[in-house]
Amino acid sequence: MKKTTIMMLASATMLFAVPTVETTPQADTTTNQGMGKGMAKTSCKQGKCKTKRIKRKNTNSPFLIQKGLPHLSKIVMQNANDKSFALTSEQKEELKKVQTETKSSIAKTTPKIRQLRREIIKGSTSGTSAMELKSSVEKLAVLQAYATMVQLKCIEETKKILTKDQLLYLLANKRK
């Protein structure tokens, strides 16, 4: 294998690296303002102020792994018409099928997951024992595992459809 090919493959794996963002609200000592629902943090140093947006945790996510896995088909569709990305019509068609299948599966599972979460929370706060909630928790775990596998399958199939150059393009342009 050529050195450039190895470098391209190593770089393509970085496509899935996600920077961490602080999501824990903390008081801002420079402005004495707390981090409430506004979810912005301002820091001032030497007369220069910067505001940093803080992303909220998605507590409604149906997936077991809620942070770190890329929404690859979403990123692909955002770049679909970019001439530099160079998707063929066949690739667009295949990617649309993968996206449709994924969305359909997740759309069927998500309401069931949310309902089980509500039931478990309600039961827990109303005094239901852990043993009585066990079967609901197990059902929730199975559904979330299924949703996560659907997401992983989507990532895998999307990567198979794209060329190495297209994956590198996404890596270079993922922040757009």
Key words describing this protein structure:
176 residues; 2 strands; 55% helix; flat; disordered N terminus
Could you walk me through the main structural features you see in this protein, from its secondary elements to its overall organization?
The chain is mainly α and 176 residues long. The chain contains five helices and two strands. The chain has helices at 3-13, 72-78, 89-125, 130-161, 164-173; strands spanning 40-45, 48-53. Strands 1-2 form a two-stranded antiparallel sheet. A hairpin with a 2-residue loop joins strand 1 and strand 2 (48-53). Helix 1 (3-13) crosses helix 5 and helix 3 (89-125) runs antiparallel to helix 4. It starts with a helix and ends with a helix.
Present the secondary structure layout.
Layout: H1 3-13, E1 40-45, E2 48-53, H2 72-78, H3 89-125, H4 130-161, H5 164-173
Antiparallel strand pairs: 1-2
Quick synopsis:
The protein is mainly alpha-helical and 176 residues long. Helix content is 55%, strand content 7%.
Write down the secondary-structure element order: HEEHHHH
> What is the end-to-end distance?
31 Å
Oligomeric state of the chains in view: single chain
Q: State the share of residues found in helices, binned by percent.
A: 55-70%
Radius of gyration, in Å, reads 21 Å
User: Low-confidence spans: pLDDT under 50, at least 5 residues?
Assistant: 2-12, 17-38
Overall structural class, as computed from helix and strand content, comes to: mainly alpha
Shape: flat
Helices, by number, come to 5
Mean pLDDT: 79
Main beta sheet, described?
2 strands, antiparallel
* Percent of residues in β-strands: 5-15%
Q: Identify the strand order in the major beta sheet.
A: 1-2
Count all strands and give the number.
2
